[in-house]
Design goal:
- 47% of the residues are buried.
- The strands form 2 sheets. Strands 1, 2, 5, 7 and 9 form a 5-stranded mixed beta sheet that branches. A 4-stranded antiparallel beta sheet has the order 4-3-6-8, with no helix packed on it.
- Among the domains are: 195 residues, Carboxypeptidase-like, regulatory domain (Immunoglobulin-like), CATH 2.60.40; 128 residues, Tetratricopeptide repeat domain (Serine Threonine Protein Phosphatase 5, Tetratricopeptide repeat, Alpha Horseshoe); 120 residues, Serine Threonine Protein Phosphatase 5, Tetratricopeptide repeat (Alpha Horseshoe), CATH 1.25.40.
- It has 718 residues and is mostly helical.
- It contains 28 helices and 9 strands.
- Helix 15 packs parallel to helix 17 and helix 18 packs antiparallel against helix 19.
């Protein structure tokens, strides 16, 4: 006979019982009842291995497991030979084997165990016992390959099973047959027919039971998938993207519909796992095209998501035709009036052009999207506010601060009246306005807005949300600009800690934070501390976004600038050149970031005294700034200042002066006569005038610059 018959227990059914108990790591919580579902006391339970022993008190057992036991592993329970323990037998599960549940303190349920006293005749009238006994008996009926099991072997199996609970095989046999005649459930009827070898009747009943249980299991599976789906959405909303990935992966393992694949793709994107997201977005698009057609709104939405992924990866040339196709779909839906969904795609296309420095193409698209939202949604709708923010960001990128400010303020007003003053959307709008003031170096106006946004994020999204981290990072930049380095360092580190904890240490947001913290150390001359941060950021960008992403180029520039400051010119030059090559490949030759990169490389040549190589780079940078940002932009002034420095170094004072004059005029008009950047140009112009022996003029400019710097000093320093 099978070794499986050498059992000292009866069948034990495992299910969860709604008994409240705190789960602890290393402990198994049981709820012990008899076949009448009454809690049992004074039963001593242990398990195989180095396990403790615990006595049931009103059904409750807290059993310490063997060391190193982990959730999902199996353990085998035993009834200890004490306190009358030998008089008890397990009913469910028969062999005492069960799986250890998670030690997560989230469950509100203990594992239920059913026991009975040996020789207790009440078992013979318990449907739970008789069903379990019959099932266990049938599992032990193992036919041979060359013949069926004999009646004598059946009787032996029955005898052995009955003895484990102290009953005779005859009385158990009678009870099972009587139970079978009274059974109403097809599963129980099928077991009883199978026990009596009535195979046609058993097949009919068990087929019926199988179908019922299959449908029930499918329903349970669907309900489980729905619960995981909506939990994933909630975690996504909290910014817990790695956890939302786990939940949506559970959904996709059960059903691969477009919605589940799409949400998993979105979560992976937010978690920085872009390579894994791309095939999901493509599969979602394929499903929608096949099921709904090539011109359905859901197909357009799938195209939008795929384009957004390519945008994040800096694959702008791939994103553009996809967005244009999505826009064509929306435009065909209602040819007489543009639907609001088309406005979102128009906004996305405008954002793509903005990222590429194609500002002239971006502006009419932003305005068109805004017009659609105002007409279709209303002037006070949140979508209108979103569109206002996009147009304002374009103006900010162009240095058109005066035009951007009223748009940001109008968007903020809409959010406050629509959602309230304590909504995350309001916080985002506050952050946008603060970023404008920071770009304009209006730190006094920016700081309270950041702080208010931060307070809202912490109370609504939590202290460890990615948006909260972003706000910390932005506020740190304000403090750094004012020389408040210790405060800035604390906030940068806090932001980095949140990104690494919530998103991952290898997420691109963490890389951005590392870059900013490295920049802070560089500003303080702490080059040894800065270098590993810049290197780590570059490594993350290369692994997550690719070696030819604009962020990778920015990271190369940052590391190169550090080497330039340290006069490590040989190490700096290939990084500057690599950054420029990446940007020209991804953004084209006419983009503000290209101009910035040219300025950096030209500065290296300047430091090496290679003026003839630096001059054409500075001139090209100036031309790009003028074409993309305009002749009155502060960055244009910076480029004029740099070009003047080259002429100054070569003694070409007459050529340098008009450039510095123009730079000063731009700074005064764009930033104000009392701005620190204005002071820098005043000092440079004064130095030039002294070389030209115009001492009185130089002294006046120096006095102005000194006054600006004195007034701009913070009230306290680190």
């Amino acid at each position: 006979m099978c070794g499986a018959l050498q059992l000292s227990f009866l069948l034990m059914l495992s299910f969860l019982h709604p008994y409240r108990h705190v789960f602890e790591e290393g402990y198994l919580i049981l709820y012990v009842t008899n076949t009448a579902e009454e809690p049992v006391s004074n039963v001593a339970i242990t398990c195989k291995g180095d396990c403790s022993e615990a006595i049931a008190v009103r059904g409750r057992v807290r059993l310490k497991l063997p060391p190193q036991t982990r959730p999902g592993e199996g353990v085998t329970l035993q009834i200890a030979k004490r306190s009358g323990g030998s008089d008890w037998a397990f009913i469910s599960p028969w062999d005492g084997h069960l799986l250890v549940p998670p030690f997560d303190n989230k469950a509100d349920k203990a594992i239920s165990v059913v026991v009975a006293r040996r020789s207790d005749k009440q078992m013979l009238s318990s449907g739970k016992f008789l069903e379990a006994f019959t099932a266990r008996y049938l599992k032990e009926i193992n036919p041979k390959l060359d013949r069926q099991i004999s009646d004598e072997e059946r009787q032996l199996v029955l005898k052995l099973q009955a003895e484990t609970v102290g009953l005779s095989p005859e009385e158990v046999d009678r009870a099972v047959r009587e139970w079978g005649r009274k059974a109403k459930d097809p599963y129980q009827q099928g077991l009883a027919d199978l026990y009596e070898k009535n195979y046609p009747a058993a097949t009919e009943k068990l087929r019926q039971s199988y179908q019922m249980r299959k449908e029930a299991a499918q329903k349970i599976n669907a309900d489980f998938a729905d619960a995981a789906f909506f939990l994933g959405q909630s975690l996504y909303g909290e910014g817990k993207y790695s956890e939302s990935v786990d939940k949506f992966q559970e959904v996709v393992s059960r059903r691969k519909d477009a919605a589940a694949l799409n949400w998993l793709g979105l979560s992976l994107c937010q978690a920085g796992r872009y390579a894994e997201a791309e095939p999901l977005f493509k599969r979602t698009l394929e499903i929608n095209e096949k099921a709904l057609g090539n011109e359905h709104p859901d197909t357009a939405q799938s195209l939008n998501n795929l384009a957004a992924l390519y945008y994040s990866l800096g694959r702008y040339h791939e994103a553009e035709p996809i967005l244009k196709r999505a826009l064509e779909i929306y435009e065909k839906i209602e040819s007489d009036k543009e639907p609001p969904d088309s406005a979102a795609t128009i906004n996305n296309l405008a954002a793509l052009y903005r990222a590429q420095g194609r500002y002239i193409e971006a502006e009419p698209l932003y305005k068109r999207a805004l017009d659609i939202y105002e007409r279709m949604r209303g002037k006070e709708h949140p979508d209108t506010a979103t569109s206002l923010n996009g147009l304002a960001l374009l103006y900010k990128s162009q240095g058109r601060y005066a035009e951007a400010e009223p748009l940001y303020k109008r968007a903020l007003d809409i959010y406050e009246r629509t959602f309230g003053k304590e909504h995350p959307g309001t916080a985002t709008s506050l952050n946008n306005l603060a970023e404008l003031y920071r770009a304009h170096k209006k730190y006094t106006e920016a700081e309270p807005l950041y702080k208010r946004a931060l307070d809202i994020y912490e109370r609504t999204l939590g202290k460890e949300h990615p948006d909260t981290a972003t706000c910390f990072n932005n506020l740190a930049k304000i403090y750094q600009a004012q020389g408040l380095y210790k405060e800035a360092e604390r906030l940068y580190k806090r932001a980095l800690d949140i990104y690494e904890k919530v998103l991952s240490k290898g997420h691109s947001s963490a890389a951005t934070s590392l870059n900013d913290l490295g920049g802070l150390y560089q500003a303080q001359g702490l080059f040894t501390e800065a270098e590993p941060l810049f290197k780590r950021a570059l490594d993350i960008y290369e692994r997550t976004l690719g070696k030819e992403h604009p962020f990778t180029a920015t990271s190369c520039n940052n590391l190169a600038a550090l080497y330039l400051t340290q006069r490590r010119y040989v190490e700096a030059e290939p990084l500057f050149k690599r950054a420029l090559e990446i940007l020209e490949k991804t953004l084209g030759r006419i983009h503000p970031d290209i101009a910035t990169s040219l300025n950096e490389l030209a500065t290296l040549h300047y430091a090496l005294g290679r003026f003839t190589e630096a001059e054409p780079l500075f001139k090209r940078a100036l031309e790009i700034y003028e074409r993309t940002l305009g002749k009155e932009h502060p960055d244009t002034a910076t480029s004029l200042n740099n070009l003047a420095a080259i002429f100054y170094a070569q003694g070409k004072y007459e050529e340098a002066e008009p450039l510095l004059k123009r730079a000063l005029n731009i700074r005064e008009e764009a930033l104000g006569k009392k701005h620190l950047d204005t002071a820098t140009v005043l000092e440079n112009y004064a130095a030039l005038l002294r070389r030209m022996n115009r001492e009185d003029e130089a002294a006046k400019l120096e006095a102005r610059a000194k006054e600006i710097r004195e007034k701009a000093k913070p009230k306290y320093r680190d």
